[in-house]
Amino acid sequence: MTILFYVGLFMASVIITLAGCHLFTNGIEWLGKRMNISEGAVGSVFAAVGTTLPETSIPIIAIFFGAGREQMEVGLGAILGAPFMLSTLVLPILALLLVLYAKLGKRTATFKLNYGEVRVDISFFLVSYVLALTCAMIPSKGFHIAVALVLLAMYVYYMKLKFSAEDEESEGGGDELEPLLFARRSTKPSYLVIGAQGIVGLLGLVGGAHLFVTAANSISAELQVSPLILALLIAPLATELPEMSNSFLWLYRKKDRLAVGNVTGAMVFQGSIPVSVGLLGTEWTLGTTALATMVLAVIAMGLSLLQAVWSGHWRPWLLSGSALLYLGYTLFLYTHGS
Question: Which of 150, 262, 288, 330 has the fewest CB atoms within 10 Å, measured from its CB?
C-alpha cells in the first residue's frame, strides 16, 4: 500500500507539473506575441524557458530546500538528465517523425531551418557543458563560482543575440497561436491576464517539483533504486513532455524553426542556468553515472554540429543515430545499476 501511495504521489506531481507548464508556456508565447518578439526568440528563448522550468524548479527545491544526500542527487539528476534526453532522444525522435510525416505525404523529409541559428545554439550549449565538465574535474569552489557566473553571463548574451536577430518568415506558413487559456475569447489579452496565468503556472511548477522530489526519494527507498537514476531518466521524461509535444506538433505544421529551436534553445538554457544552480549550491562532485550523461550529450551535440557545419544541413537518418546513445546508456543502467 505504501509503494502505491508514493506512485500516486509521483503521478500527481507529473500532472501538476505538466498543467503548470502548459499554463506558463501558453502565457509566455502570448507575451512574445504581444511584444512582437521574433519567432526565433519565441522558440529558442520564451518557449524553451517555459518548457524547461520544471527541470529547473526541481533542482532548486532539492538542492536549496532539501535535506540529505538523496535529495541532492535528485537535484543533480534533474540538472543533467534533461540535456542528455534532449540531445540523445528528443532530437532523434524529431528526425524520425520528419521521415514519417514525409512518408505520409504531409511534408518533405528535409528540415527547413536557419542553420546559422542552429549552429549558434549548439555552440553555446557545448561551451557551457564542457565548462561544467571541467568543473567536475577541478574541486575548487572558487572556480565553480567563477564558472557559474560565466555561464549566467553567456546566457544573457545569448538572449541578447536572439532578441536582436531579424525575424524570418517560416517556410510553409503555420497555424495561429492557440488562445490564451485564461482568456479564450480574447484576440488580444491584456498583460495583466497573461501575467496572472504565468504566475498560476509557475506556482504549479514549483508545487509539482516539490511533490516529485518527495516521491522520488520515497520510491527509491522502497525499491532500493538510486534516486540519481530515477532523476536522470524519469524526471526529464516527465517534465519534457510539453516540450516534446510542442516540437512534434510544430514539425507537423512545418514550423521547423520553432520545433528545433524549442529543443536547442532549451539545451542552451539547461546547460547554463540549472548548471549554475548546481555549481553554486553543491560541491559538484559527480559520479561515473552522472558524468557519463554529460559526455554522451556532448558527443551527440558535437556530431549534430559537425553535420550542420560539414554539409550545411541535417540528414534525418544521421541525426536519429544519436538515439543509440540513449538506448545503450539506459540498457547499461538497467543491467548494471548506478
Answer: 288
Q: 240 pLDDT exceeds 70? A: no
For residue 239, which of 38, 93, 24 has the smallest C-alpha distance? 24
Phi, psi of 170 (to 5 degrees): -70, 135
Between the CA of residue 13 and those of 52, 168, 201, 205, 209, what are the distances in Å?
16, 38, 14, 9, 7
| Lookup: cell for 272 | 547554463
Closest CA to 203 of 211, 191, 215, 193: 211
Task: Decide if 170 contacts 113 (C-beta within 8 A).
Answer: no
Domain ranges in the chain?
2-336
Amino acid sitting at position 175: D
**Which of 104, 73, 34, 25 has its CA nearest to residue 262?**
25
Cβ atoms of residues 235 and 57 within 8 Å: no
DSSP 238-298: HHTHHHHHHHHHHHHTT-HHHHHHHHHHHHHHHTTHHHHHHHHHS-----HHHHHHHHHHH
Determine the residue type at 107: R
Q: How is 169-217 classified by DSSP, letter by letter?
A: PPTT--PPPPPBTTBTT-SS--HHHHHHHHHHHHHHHHHHHHHHHHHHH
Q: Which residue has the cell 559526455?
A: 295
312 DSSP assignment = S
What's the confidence (pLDDT) of residue 1?
Answer: 52
Q: How far is CA 143 from the centre of its chain?
A: 26
What's the CATH number of domain 2-336, 1.20.1420.30, 3.40.50.300, 2.30.110.10, 3.30.470.20?
1.20.1420.30
